[in-house]
Amino acid sequence: MGRVSPTGARLGRPPLLLVIPAVLASLLLVVPLVTLVADTPWSDFGDQITSTAVGDALRLTVLASALTVVFCLLLGTPLAWLLARVAFPGRSIVRAAVTVPLVLPPVVAGVALVTALGRTGAIGRPLYEWFGVTIPYTTTAVVIAHTFVSLPFYVLSVEGALRSAGEEYDAVAATLGADRWTTFRRVTLPLAFPGVLAGSALAWARSLGEFGATITFAGNYPGTTQTMPSLIYTQLQSDPMVARTVSMVLLVVSIAVLALLRNRWLTRP
Amino acid sequence: MSGLELGLTVPGRVSVAAVAEPGQVVGVIGPNGAGKSTLLRAVAGIVPVRGEVRVDDRSWSRLTVRERAVGMAFQDQLLFPHLSALENVAFGPRTAGASRSQARRTAQSWLDRFEVGDLARRKPRQLSGGQAQRVSIARALATDPRVLLLDEPFSGLDVGVAAGLRVELARHLTAYDGVTLLVTHDAIDALTLADVVWVLEGGELVQVGPPREVAARPLTRHVARLVGLNVLTEGGRFWSFSPSAVTVSPDEPSGSARHRWPGTVTSLAPHGDAVRLLVSGEHDLLADVTPASVTELRLTPGRAVWLSVKETAVDIYSAESNGG
Q1: What CATH number does the domain containing B290 carry?
Q2: Is A167 on the interface with B (CB under 8 A)?
Q3: How many CB pairs under 8 A join A and B?
Q4: Digit-coded pLDDT (tens) for B80-139
Q5: How far apart are CA B205 and CA B68, in angstroms?
Q6: A248 within domain boundaries
């Protein structure tokens, strides 16, 4: 006795009304990536990738995305814990508010950041007048913009993990005499670890591709604020071949992240 | 001195006033949803409570969970999945300020006492249900609690495993000088482990007494079923009689039996050498008959029968004269 075919072959042929759109959808998603790989000028790949502009942009992108993950870990984890574990007044409002950047067009996020941290902004003006600190058009601005757009992904992922890790274990730890910090450190966080890793990867991937908020809030200056996506945008107008090479690099990195996620964390409960 | 004094209310769930002596094992029984687990959580401070919890003549009402000297073994064990058995048991001593090696020694000795010392390095998912339950009880005891809360420690275990654990637990509870609240749905646990039984129903304490007395003269349908007795109420008095004292006949009996009820057989199940019938009518009653009479009287579900019981087989009592 063989197993019942998982495709459900015995239930009849899949209807064309479902098959045709499904095929179209996969083509739409796959074909551009295939053509990107095919059109990449592989012969010049090495030269282009080692050019100063690409090197600077790559370095800045790696730095910005790494710092983004660090800030997500340091700021996002406590926020996720608070949302998951403490029934403070207005919790649902806070949760809704921190989710907004998830669906906000990145350019709007950039404009919003300017109104807060720009030289005439609500926080930016006192920063400038009292301390002489300017944020827009600096590497700091890049990291802030990236953290702004990535944090919601991280917080939602970790909050979900904290919820599914179960509040019951917090009660167990309390009966064993643990205070909330000890419980967080020794029980809650280890149990939510897969979620923390997945959240970090999501935040990192989001930061890697960030363009709209960055170019609006931080500009596009080679060496200080020009990240890989900004470089692609610039090169597309002057040298499309370089744009393809740089895109190829980002594609490879993104696929690596996805593969890592699927193999290591997303398949685990 | 009293070990545990309760006068607490969990709004909408439980309202209990009771006292237990130090060293006493209290069997908490009652139907599902009676508030047994909630009572334990209230004592531990996990759920918000109105009223008073006193332990060793000291009020716990204002203490947080971690400040209360409780040890709790949860229904589904809830061992920390990322820690080994040893680390689970060492968790309490460690938070109490013991050094790492000291906490580990304490934990190892508790695991040894529950005969799972050789499993110290295993993760919870590598333990069987019975082993995990032993680790869970060891973890609860390792903090040296004044009140031990055991929530259905034998549920979900194989009969043999449960029996073994019951024997071991009995040994530890005899030596333990704090108060133990043992929630159980098993009459055997209550009869063999408890010094006193609290019967909860609808969130309230409806009967308190030594296990033997509660089993002999139950005041609730739930306990009657648990110990396998027929209990009827009439005018505030309780009538109890054993299923084996019930006579089953196809027609209305005309003999000396004064108490008789018509009914319909709803189920049959083997019970020792006999067959236990559940007969529904005005009351749901149990009756034990021999396998021979099952055939003779053609007793199948749906069959109409008469039940009768002799006056001398009925124990009549009132709630006031009982326990408490």
Answers
A1: 2.40.50.100
A2: no
A3: 51
A4: 999 999 999 999 999 999 999 999 999 999 999 988 999 999 999 999 989 999 999 999
A5: 24
A6: no
Instruction: Say if residue B285 is in the same domain as residue B159.
Output: no
Instruction: Verify whether the Cβ–Cβ distance B80 to A169 is below 8 Å.
Output: yes
CA distance B285 to chain A (A): 41
Contact: A175, B91; criterion CB under 8 Å:
no
Annotate B140-201 with DSSP letters as a single string: HHTT--SEEEEESTTTTS-HHHHHHHHHHHHHHHHH--SEEEEE-S-HHHHHHH-SEEEEEE
Q: Does A190 touch chain B (CB under 8 A)?
A: yes
Return the biggest CA–CA distance within chain A. Answer: 80
The answer to whether B139 contacts A168, with C-beta atoms less than 8 Å apart, is no
Task: Say if residue B184 is in the same domain as residue B314.
Answer: no
Q: What is the pLDDT of residues A74-107, one digit of tens each?
A: 999 999 999 999 989 999 999 999 888 888 999 9
Residues of chain A positioned with their CB less than 8 A from the CB of B143: 176-177
Looking at the structure, do residues B143 and B292 belong to the same domain, yes or no?
Answer: no
B252 lies in the same domain as B214: no
Question: What is the spatial distance between Cα A65 and Cα B100, in angstroms, rounded to a whole number?
Answer: 38
| Shared domain check, B258 and B172 | no
> Which residues span the domain enclosing B303?
228-318
Show the domain range for A148.
61-226
Look at residue A117 and tell me if it is in a domain. yes
Tokens of A99: 């989710």
Which residue from A171, A177, A187 is facing B80, i.e. has the nearest CB? Answer: A187
The closest CB to that of B65, out of A175, A186, A190, belongs to A175
Largest CA distance in chain B: 78
Query: Positive or negative, the Cα torsion across A44, A45, A50, A55?
Result: positive
Kindly state whether B71 is in contact with chain A, defined as any CB-CB distance less than 8 angstroms: yes
Indicate whether this complex's ipTM tops 0.85: no
Nearest to A115 by CA among A211, A217, A210: A217
Q: Roughly what angle, to the nearest 10 degrees, separates helices A124-131 and A106-117?
A: 40
